[in-house]
Amino acid sequence: MRAIIIEKGEGGTVARLGDFPEDDLMEGDVTVRVTHSTVNYKDGLAITGKAPVVRHFPMIGGIDFAGVVETSHHPDFKPGDPVVLNGWGLGETHLGGYAELARVKGDWLVALPQGLSPAQAMAIGTAGYTAMLCVMALERYGVTPDRGPALVTGAAGGVGSVAVSLLSDRGWRVIASTGRVEEADYLMSLGANEIMDRSELSGPAKPLGKERWAATVDTVGSTTLANALSMTAYGGAVAACGLAGGMDLPGSVMPFILRAVALLGIDSVYAPKARRIEAWSRLAQELDREKLASMTRTIACDEIIPVARDILAGKVRGRVVVEI
Ligand code: NDP
């Protein structure tokens, strides 16, 4: 079967589109015919080898997929069921979604919610599902739109675009921070009320800045996250999910101890199944389909490797669906 195969070469990892023997699929109680996958930031890291995402070689890339169950020994799934999978080490330790077939543990799968096609599920992908996990975390913490605006960093990226749309449709005034101010019209069309140049958040953070927002979805990390914290209003919260700008956090404890600001960590890979089901079902109900379509483009398998390079270079807007 055709697959994006990641191997360890002498000079580092090498990715190529090639043939992978079906017999070499890993253990699992469900085999899925993959119809769609996507390119997330982590796929960019895995394919280029810029970070040690892949821990088993040869690996099939792709940290998520949507498709139809082909064979199943799991009580919850039968042939023909549409399913979605993200995380659980897919494309890292377990053969991933950039292939015509995937064999996985049925416990990892989520039944595709009604009203969502496999292509739409991958337009959302791990990025959009993570944006929903961020929104759910902010809501669980109890921060509400009447307390002030919501900041989204890396707004023109995948997580950012979905977060802007979700927050706006839930009544938040959204401040979209981006390095691509030329994407202002795009971000406004998703629901942003204000565009902020990312440079405003990329310098050293003051221990406490002016209180400017009540909530943040941060995909950037580093000084951006430190600034987001320092400008969070009393009792607000920051959902931190990304490191597109760096994995350090050069900040101060002052927002936590003088303004009761909360830092909420978001992990999509090992999120418990009940939370995944809630996130996917809310995405099916709440995410505006027209906005989703406007932030998505579709590519073929032979474009995955160049797009993976582009996403690390910050050149990909919104979401990318791969037709397998
Ligand atoms: P994208 O590349 O689509 O989005 C990242 C965005 O960050 C870019 O579009 C850009 O936005 C901004 N950005 C890129 N480089 C820099 C930089 N050097 N400094 C400041 N901003 C920068 O990636 P995804 O949306 O797929 O993922 C976003 C982040 O979230 C990644 O770090 C990813 O690893 C992480 N993630 C984490 C998950 C988890 O489980 N915790 C799950 C999914 C994603 P703009 O052009 O608007 O400035």
TrEMBL record:
Q: Which domain of life is it from?
A: Bacteria
Q: Which Gene3D superfamilies match?
A: Medium-chain alcohol dehydrogenases, catalytic domain, NAD(P)-binding Rossmann-like Domain
Note the CDD domains from the entry: MDR_yhdh (cd08288)
The family database entries (InterPro entries) matched by this protein are listed as: Acrylyl-CoA_reductase_AcuI (IPR014188), ADH-like_C (IPR013149), ADH-like_N (IPR013154), ER (IPR020843), GroES-like_sf (IPR011032), NAD(P)-bd_dom_sf (IPR036291), Zn-ADH-like_protein (IPR051397)
GO terms of molecular function: acryloyl-CoA reductase (NADPH) activity
Limits of the Enoyl reductase (ER) domain = 12-322
SMART domains from the UniProt entry: PKS_ER
Output the SUPFAM superfamilies linked to this UniProt entry: GroES-like, NAD(P)-binding Rossmann-fold domains
For this entry, the protein name equals: NADPH:quinone dehydrogenase
